[in-house]
Amino acid sequence: MSSRLQAEHLYKVFGRRPDDAVERIRKGADREELREDGVTAAVIDASFSVAPGEIFVVMGLSGSGKSTLLRMLNGLLEPTSGRVSFDGRDLTALDDRELREVRARKISMVFQHFALFPHRSVRENAAYGLEVQGVPRAERERRADEALALCGLAGWESSWPDELSGGMQQRVGLARALATDADLLLMDESFSALDPLIRRDMQDQLLELQKTLKKTIVFITHDLNEAMRLGDRIAVMRDGRIVQTGTAEDILLRPADDYVASFTKDVDRSRVLTAESVMDTEVRGDEADCGCETADPATPFTQLCALSARLSHPVAVVAGGEGEGGERRLVGVVPRQRLVGFLGGRPGTEGGEPVPCDRPGDARGEKVISRA
């Protein structure tokens, strides 16, 4: 996978002699030992990469280091150790002028608390980043209006921030970031201050925009449901360290440790899982009846449950050609009790033990099915 943004062994230590503290950590010292000496290790040995057009979510509890990590990505905080690269350029090696130029043109931030100027109109707020770039007024107003329209705020351009609801104000913040046409969006708990319904609307808005704009996004949140809804991949942080990175299914079905597992116990699994996630690739002969209705590997969990309720046998999961004369392969089956087990957080066999999820194409149980 090609990467647009890379973080390599990032450390951020606050306090006296931070370089010495990094060496102590590398030799096995923990955060508590450093804290006794008046030193705070906010981020410890964080490494990850973000692909072009990917929404990469960093989640963790308050104090886990996620916001500090984000601020190192655009140079608002200088790493104590490590490197940040964007489009192959080492951002940690730039001088102040070069870094300001990158932040003005290449990287935009969307903050948690809107950060709108109360004395500027909605249009002027959305155009602010372009004003910093020196874009002529007519051009920046045109681009600001286009970004506001993308965010559902057409007709509100001349309004003042205090005339808008919280959700609308956050849309202005998002429009300001989009107006600059920055390649990288950094979103720091951007929806956390919103009411639940408005927050979900903003998530929908971001996902809809992403279908067209395909921005590279790093999104910070403490909410695992939000992380799983938005993220192509998720990094879970604890005590300054990234403890697991993976897709929503990886985090949900294969948690790296008890800490990650504790996050997932209250997650609405039906919004994350697909037939591929839950199917059993060990297919017996009496389970191979595909009937008239089948699922494909990408079938959402909720649709799978509805399909299972209509059938008297396990749901067959098939993959393969759709054209005339094409063949489909049976890649797995989903017994009803397996659906219940996953929904209740007990994936696996009758014994309740979690099992790895095989991918389509696994040789086990694979069978050619004639096209109905």
Descriptive labels:
372 residues, alpha/beta, Rossmann fold, 6-stranded mixed sheet, 4-stranded antiparallel sheet, disordered C terminus
SSE layout:
Layout: E1 5-14, H1 18-26, H2 31-36, E2 40-50, E3 55-59, H3 66-73, E4 81-86, E5 89-90, H4 96-105, E6 107-110, H5 122-126, H6 128-133, H7 137-150, H8 166-179, E7 184-188, H9 196-213, E8 216-221, H10 224-230, E9 233-238, E10 241-246, H11 248-253, H12 258-264, H13 275-278, H14 301-310, E11 315-320, E12 328-334, H15 336-343, E13 367-369
Parallel strand pairs: 3-8, 3-9, 6-7, 7-8
Antiparallel strand pairs: 1-2, 1-4, 4-5, 9-10, 11-12, 12-13
Helix pairs in contact: 7-8, 8-9
Q: What is CATH's topology name of the largest domain?
A: Rossmann fold
Helix content: 25-40%
Strand content: 15-25%
Give the overall form.
globular
- The rounded distance between the terminal residues' Cα atoms is 37 Å
Q: Please give the domain count.
A: 2
Task: Provide a short characterization of the protein structure.
By secondary structure, the chain is an alpha/beta fold.
Provide a descriptive summary of the structure in words.
- The chain is α/β, with parallel strands linked by helices and 372 residues long.
- The protein has two domains: 5-106 and 183-267, Rossmann fold; 271-369, no CATH class.
- The protein is 35% helix and 21% strand.
- Strands 6-7-8-3-9-10 form a six-stranded mixed sheet, with helices on both faces. Strands 2-1-4-5 form a four-stranded antiparallel sheet, with helices on both faces. Strands 11-12-13 form a three-stranded antiparallel sheet.
- The model is unreliable at 348-372 (pLDDT under 50).
